[in-house]
Design goal:
This protein is mainly alpha-helical. It is about 70% helix and about 0% strand. The structure holds zinc ion.
Length: about 140
């Protein structure tokens, strides 16, 4: 009697607009088959009820505030994630600069590493001083 086709078309009517022939078939079958008409009415009611409950969200009072706060947190997090390598580089460069300035400013206080074996000391004059008077007298 076409009950299967009726159900199929009835469900398809939710997703697309039916042609005139299909609509005519639906009307004809509803008048001829009260069982199909009843079950489809129940199905439609149930679906409408479900749709209504699904589309009415329970909004809390501070819903917008929470959404905005979450958006801010997300944007801050994203910017931190984006800039963190540059920040780390800047911190490292700053520390290096600070250390260099300390070394330049206090270079006289830096510990001097003495390695005794490699140290050259001048214990006596390297070039013997010539006694000029003595030299002149010897030439004469
Ligand atoms: Zn039927």
């Amino acid at each position: 009697m076409g009950c299967g086709r009726y159900r199929k078309l009835h469900y398809a009517a939710r997703d697309r607009s039916l042609s005139d022939r299909e609509l005519e078939f639906l009307e004809r079958h509803e008048t001829a088959c009260p069982e199909c008409a009843k079950s489809m009415r129940h199905a439609t009611d149930a679906l409408d009820f479900l749709r209504m409950s699904a589309l009415e969200p329970e909004t809390t009072t501070n819903f917008n505030d929470r959404i905005l706060r979450r958006h801010k947190v997300e944007s801050v997090r994203a910017s931190v994630r984006y800039w963190s390598p540059a920040m780390l580089g800047a911190v490292a460069a700053g520390l290096t600069l600070l250390a260099a300035m300390q070394m330049i400013a206090q270079s006289s206080h830096l510990p001097i590493f003495k390695v005794p074996a490699s140290e050259a000391r001048l214990t006596s004059p390297a070039i013997p001083s010539l006694d000029r008077l003595n030299l002149q007298s010897s030439w004469q």
